[in-house]
Amino acid sequence: MLPSHSRSVSLAIFFPTLALLTLFWPPLTGTARAADAQASLALAPHGTPFFFEVIDSHDAKYPGDTPSHVGKDGGLSVRPNVALRDPVYRTVNKATTVIGRVTLVQWDRVSGSLTVEFDPEPLHRIAVGDEVWVDLNPMPSQPATPGPTTPAN
């Protein structure tokens, strides 16, 4: 048992700390709820296009680098499921062509924007200002089928 002086000092420290924690606790839990709301966004339906403009093109930023292009746009209200090496498309006159492959993708959940960097496919001209797109949730690819198995003896 603490002496009465030590107990009163402990209580003098405990109650103001509890009062401050009570004041600041709701904003902390509100922030956690907001983060949970963003994390619980539904995935985009398969085949949902995300159109964006090419805003940067560069050739060999770093030694050994290859040409690439960067685009960005906002307005996402669904969770993207874009991965490295996913195709980047361009549609002209209802004809869709693969013009590149994703090499970097960044999702800014707060602003609802997606930044995509991609390497171009050979023989495709890609200019700043071009409108291109990625599938926000492509159908999963089929795994390779295993070869014949031999029974263990």
Explain this structure.
The chain contains 1 helix and 6 strands. The protein has 153 residues and is of the alpha+beta class. Strands 3-4-5-2-1-6 form a 6-stranded antiparallel beta sheet, with no helix packed on it. The relative contact order is 0.19. The model has no long low-confidence stretch (mean pLDDT 80).
Explain briefly what this protein structure is:
24% of the residues lie in helices and 32% in strands.
Tag the structure with descriptive keywords.
153 residues, alpha+beta, Elongation Factor Tu (Ef-tu), domain 3, 2 domains, 6-stranded antiparallel beta sheet, 1 helix, elongated
Draw up the topology in text.
Blueprint: H1 4-39, E1 49-58, E2 68-73, E3 87-92, E4 95-108, E5 113-120, E6 131-135
Antiparallel strand pairs: 1-2, 1-6, 2-5, 3-4, 4-5
Measure the end-to-end span. Answer: 73 Å
Quote the average pLDDT: 80
Output the strand order for the largest sheet.
3-4-5-2-1-6
Count of runs of 4 or more consecutive helical residues: 1
Number of DSSP strand runs? 6
In CATH, the architecture of the largest domain is Beta Barrel
Classify the fold: give the CATH topology of the largest domain: Elongation Factor Tu (Ef-tu), domain 3
CATH class value of the largest domain: Mainly Beta
Q: What is the ordering of alpha helices and beta strands? A: HEEEEEE
Strand content: 25-35%
- What number of domains? 2
